[in-house]
Amino acid sequence: MSTGVNLKELAAELKLSPSTVSRALNDSYEISEATKKKVVSMAEKLNYQPNPFARSLRENKSKTIAVVMPERMSNFFSKVIDGIEEVTHQHGYHLLIYSTHEDVEREKKILNLLMNGRADAIVMSVSSQTSDISHLARLHERGVPLIFFDRICESIPTTKFITNDYESSFEGTRHLIQQGCRKIAFLMLSKELSITRERYRGYLDALKAAGLSPTPSLQVTCAHEEEKNVEAIRNMLLSEDRPDGLVSSVEKLALATYHAVKKTDIKIPEDLKIISFFSNLSIAGLLTPPLTTITQPAFTIGEECAKLLIKKLTKPRQPDLPNQIISIPSSITIRSSTVVDY
Amino acid sequence: MSTGVNLKELAAELKLSPSTVSRALNDSYEISEATKKKVVSMAEKLNYQPNPFARSLRENKSKTIAVVMPERMSNFFSKVIDGIEEVTHQHGYHLLIYSTHEDVEREKKILNLLMNGRADAIVMSVSSQTSDISHLARLHERGVPLIFFDRICESIPTTKFITNDYESSFEGTRHLIQQGCRKIAFLMLSKELSITRERYRGYLDALKAAGLSPTPSLQVTCAHEEEKNVEAIRNMLLSEDRPDGLVSSVEKLALATYHAVKKTDIKIPEDLKIISFFSNLSIAGLLTPPLTTITQPAFTIGEECAKLLIKKLTKPRQPDLPNQIISIPSSITIRSSTVVDY
DNA sequence: TGAAAATACGGAAACGATTGCGAAATGACT
DNA sequence: AGTCATTTCGCAATCGTTTCCGTATTTTCA
Q1: Is the CB of B52 under 7 A from strand D?
Q2: Residue B1: what pLDDT?
Q3: Using the CA of A33, which nucleotide's C1' is the nearest one?
Q4: Which of A3, A206, B173, B211 has the most other CB atoms within 10 Å of its CB?
Q5: How far is the CA of A26 from the C1' of D5 (A)?
Q6: Which residues of B touch A116 (CB under 8 A)?
Q7: Cβ–Cβ of B49/A258 closer than 8 Å?
Q8: Size of interface A-B (CB pairs under 8 A)
Q9: What global pTM score does this model have?
């Protein structure tokens, strides 16, 4: 197909052996400067491109990192990947990107495909369906460097990058309480998710700290279909126990809430104050009213994941990825959705 | 590193030769059903995973497709990739994804990295800076299957997938005129872009068809920095020649316009009617007022790109990708940003 | 029954790079 | 001049597959 010159042909052209040419191109000390120059210039002239598979086969590494995430249509994940790419690109690494579409079966399939060394390492955020983690454990035991971010898997002994989920959620909830909310709803995806657990805990603790008790009917676990979520949220907002405040643990549920509110005559922030984990700042400012956000450091999380992996992959004898959770703080940006007359 | 069993070890375990095992796993007619069964079950037992690089080296194909696009933080591109993935995943292909960040130098670097066969094919949408296309031409001449979508490169003889840019823009502009607009602004990225040219032409022709003449100061070419764009748009909106209608040729400039309008006392749609090429329907409905959109069939575009490539890559002796432009129509969804009292 | 054909498998080369080891050429030193 | 170290390069093995051959065994059929 798209085959240019290979090492042997390049060597023949130069009347040298392939080994010499290889060493020259890799700047080996065994080759004289004179021949190095000749080789390099001829390589440029013929536009020689080393075959990545021959190299990968020989060196047993692919210069490729896989990213596995639950969805692509999310500003948060896009930014994380931008962060990863920023770092890895500088080191000549390529990015294989997979979306599980929140489907654990698909997640298993993808990880199985990654068991054969196609990627040197994996960065992942688990699907909301993931409770059985044997597929992740197997991969880790096999020795593939594995890093989690955001939606982590605590029981696998490796490095995880998150934001300060508990504290942010606590602070966000406290902010609502300070604004006068007494009945605060909480929206979440699957309770299996690490982020759900931590953010939920922060929410509960903030309520408790204020002497408030949570209302079960205001704690809505959502699914994947946007329309159903909107409907469930709307019902909750119009129920007997209607809330006066709402914490959304993920971006898309905040949008669903705005959609739900549009179908009612509820006024934000007068009747209902909203805060959400959210990464799309441009959109947050354009919502009506502008949304108070817990802004996750998405790009930085991506960068940190990549930096750690690059260190592990490029330095000679690195230890295993340490079993620790690294937290990068979010920042709360107050907008009109939580403050009257902001 | 993460090395499981290989073919030789598997063969030794079965007391067979590697060639036999290979053939058995590939379901060759030369192998008896009995030994096939034995081989397959042993392979499963030992969790044998063929080395993808050895295979790629031997077969000269990687089962990988590269996607190169200008940015990741865009609903349109995310959806296109979802469409591509949907098709390619079923055929066991992997996706290498690159963002050029609208930087032509980076685009060149990326395409250079793809010259060595790392990907069996490339799906791309060019950056807004791209005018010199020699890097694309070289790749195509080298024989790498190359497909363009959305932001295409007409002069390279291959298949391109777009939406009906001209017609949609014409219709969108006509819609504004029908709603009473007489001075209609047009927002665009670089004039080099195919989508800019076509959408601009549709806009101009619609004006002409209505007997209106375009106002040069209302045609704003934007850059990459959101804040500058907002400022430029605001100045235009407040100028002497202020428009009463606006066509945005891309998603992010519509958002920039909403930001700009927020800083003025302009009322949409009373003072200014807005229509935009836009893919994020959920957001379009949440803007205030909801945005009338020209909705591009992003997912379908991705699917079609992938289907064509898969056909080319998996069928035995396929011809070159035909030099044609395939247009998949957008649909206009009218919302309140263009109709008073909608 | 004997020759031809079909079946089932193994040996070895090939894909394109890297690298340990050996060897020729050059220079240094006594 | 002869020995030895240094520089510079080539030979061949290797990574894990696939596949072209060749071959041994069995089947077919006149």
Answers
A1: no
A2: 44
A3: D8
A4: B173
A5: 26
A6: 4, 49-52
A7: no
A8: 134
A9: 0.94
Instruction: Give Cβ neighbours of residue B129 (< 8 Å, ≥ 6 apart).
Output: B102, B103, B104, B107, B190, B192
B117 and A51: CB-CB below 8 Å? yes
Query: Please, what is the average pLDDT of chain B?
Result: 94
C1' nearest to CA of B30: which nucleotide?
C8
Query: Tell me: the pLDDT tens digits for A214-232?
Result: 999 999 999 889 999 999 9
Task: Confirm if A128 and A100 have CB atoms less than 8 A apart.
Answer: no
Closest CA to A274 of A300, A293, A297: A293
C strand bases under 7 Å from protein CB? 7-12, 14-21
Q: For residue B306, how many other CB atoms are within 10 A of its CB? A: 28
Determine the distance in angstroms separating the CA of B173 from the nearest CA of chain A, rounded to an integer.
Answer: 24
pLDDT-wise least confident of A1-15, A51-65, A219-233, B249-263:
A1-15
Spell out the residues 6+ positions from residue B338 whose beta carbon is closer than 8 angstroms to its own. Answer: B175, B176, B179, B245, B269, B273, B274, B275, B292
**CB-closest option in B54, B73, B115 to A49:** B115
The average pLDDT across B143-156 equals 95
- B330 CB-side CA count, 13 A: 30
Decide if B287 and A286 are in contact by the 8 Å CB cutoff. Answer: yes
Residue A245, token pair as written in the block:
């405040």
In the three-class reduction of DSSP (H, G, I as helix; E, B as strand; rest coil), residue A68 is classed as strand
Distance CA B203, CA B219 (A): 11
H helices of chain B, in order, are: 7-14, 18-25, 33-45, 52-59, 75-90, 104-113, 134-141, 165-178, 194-209, 226-238, 251-262, 281-286, 298-314
C-beta atoms surrounding A266 within 10 Å: 16
d(CA A216, CA A233): 14
Q: How many CB atoms lie within 10 A of CB B248?
A: 29
Could you read off the pLDDT of B261-279 as tens digits, one per residue? 999 999 999 999 999 999 9
Nearest to A82 among B78, B82, B99 (CB): B99
The one-letter amino acid code at B33 reads: E
Asked if residue B129 lies in contact with residue B102, where contact means CB atoms within 8 angstroms, the answer is: yes
Length of chain A: 342
CA–chain centroid gap for A26, Å, is: 35
CA–C1' B54–C15 (A): 8
Looking at beta carbons, which residues of chain A come within 8 Å of B113? 92, 94
- Rounded alpha-carbon distances, angstroms, from residue B72 to A76, A140, B68: 11, 29, 10
Cβ pair B286:A73 closer than 8 A: no
The amino acid at residue B131 is S
Distance from residue A21 (CA) to nucleotide D5 (C1'), in Å? Answer: 25
Sheet (strand B146-149) strand order:
A325-328, A160-163, A146-149, A121-124, A64-69, A94-99, B94-99, B64-69, B121-124, B146-149, B160-163, B325-328
Helix (H) or strand (E) holding A123: strand A121-124
Contact (Cβ atoms closer than 8 angstroms) between residue B184 and residue B176: yes
Residue B22 to residue B52: CA distance in whole angstroms: 14
Distance in angstroms, CA of B105 to C1' of C15? 33
Task: Work out the burial of residue A29: count CB atoms within 10 Å of its CB; fewer than 13 is exposed, 13-18 middle, 19 or more buried.
Answer: exposed
Point out the residue among A53, A115, A259 whose CB comes nearest to the CB of B56. A53
CA distance B302 to B9: 41
**What SS3 class is residue B313?**
helix
Distance B13 CA to D26 C1' (A): 26
Distance of alpha carbon A252 from alpha carbon A257, whole angstroms: 9
